[in-house]
Amino acid sequence: MSETPLFVTPLQVQEALRGQQYIASDEIATTLFLTMQLGKPLLCEGPAGVGKTELAKSLAHATGRTLIRLQCYEGLDETKALYEWEYAKQLLYTQLLRDKLQDTLAGANTLAQAADRLAQEEDVFFSMRFLLQRPLLKAILNDKPTVLLIDEIDRADAEFEAFLLEVLSDFQVTVPELGTLVAVHRPIVLLTSNNTRELSEALKRRCLYLFIGYPSVDQELAVVQLKVPELASKLAQQAVDLVHRLRNFDLRKSPSISETLDWARSLVALNAHQLDRDVLENTLSVLLKHESDLQKVKRRLDVTEKGPQLEKNRRPSQWRNEGDSP
Asked: Hey, is 172 helix, strand or coil?
């Protein structure tokens, strides 16, 4: 399962990701480089929408690997993540091969003899043709190198997390009817978590760890300019500045990078030239997804010649332009 190293330095990782329009910090590039060098899974934690899933997608494109994604959720179990037998297909084959089965059972004088003869044909019905591969098994058996994304592992139950440990340790699976199936190519594994629950120490011990938080103003501005080049530079700067100030507010949900990009694209679609009161009033809901957050921000938002300004303490009046009476 040994693979030729994909990158020689973290800088190469950084450049390859930028080629996929993903701006990675030195820490992200270095940790991802070590993940590939050491052959260990990478656990990425951080707020929703900061680019954890996008990192796996960009890495797959940058390396030419197939991306296989397992979306986790409460109640996820082995049959949905690993494999299950296609019993309906087995039954269909049984009906199609009915005549053949009659020939096989011809001359059997007892039920035991008939069962023994059927047992000799088990390899036909319990073979890879009837095995429905779920994401984990697909990643192990894929004849091409893969990136395996286990998305939002914190949403799965602790029991599934424990099951996952064995798969991530050996990259092999035992199917009772077929034996042990070993990975053709060791996948690059990224697990993401939004911190909705604490993950086990056993899982963390098997992984390298990376926390991806909100970027700095300069980093986020670079992302916006790369992803939405049509947006005027001054407007992009004002938009990013406002988003960062919003994140310092006590909101139910702070705007993520993905929502910043959605807002930037919205401003382009509206052919906006400045962040005036009308534009903000009509587009803030792209950034804020709760009515209480919207009302809180609107009460504290001024629109001045320098752009939108947020006040920490503000009486609950309507929006005002610079020059209006306080």
From this structure: strand
- Assign 3-state DSSP to the chain and report helix, strand, coil percentages, each to 5: 50, 15, 35
Q: What are phi and psi of 321, to 5 degrees?
A: -90, 160
CA-CA distance, 218 to 214, in Å (whole number)? 11
- The residue type of 321 is N
Strands 208-211 and 172-175 turn out to be unpaired
Do residues 212 and 53 lie in contact, with contact meaning Cβ atoms separated by under 8 Å?
Answer: no
Nearest to 178 by CA among 102, 82, 89: 82
Residue 53, classed as helix, strand or coil, is helix
Phi, psi of 154 (to 5 degrees): -70, -15
Q: From CA 184, how far away is CA 181, in angstroms rounded?
A: 9
CA distances from 92 to 100, 114, 126, 132, 272 (A): 14, 21, 14, 15, 60
Lowest mean pLDDT among 71-85, 90-104, 306-320: 306-320
* Number of Cβ within a 10 Å radius of residue 133: 16
Enumerate the β-bridge partners of residue 101.
none
Name the 3-class secondary structure at 70.
strand
Q: What is the pTM of this model?
A: 0.79
Angle, CA of 140, 142 and 146, to the nearest 5°: 80
Residues of the chain with pLDDT > 70, as a percent, come to 79
d(CA 128, CA 304): 67
Please say whether the structural domain 10-78+142-211 has been given the CATH code 1.10.10.10. no
Q: Which residue's entry shows tokens 């929006």?
A: 319
Q: Between the CA of residue 106 and those of 92, 94, 97, 118, 125, what are the distances in Å?
A: 21, 16, 14, 11, 20
CA 210/CA 154 separation, integer angstroms:
15
pLDDT 10s digits, 261-278: 999 999 999 999 888 888
**In sequence order, which residues have a C-beta less than 8 Å from that of residue 294 and are 6 or more positions away?**
284, 285, 288
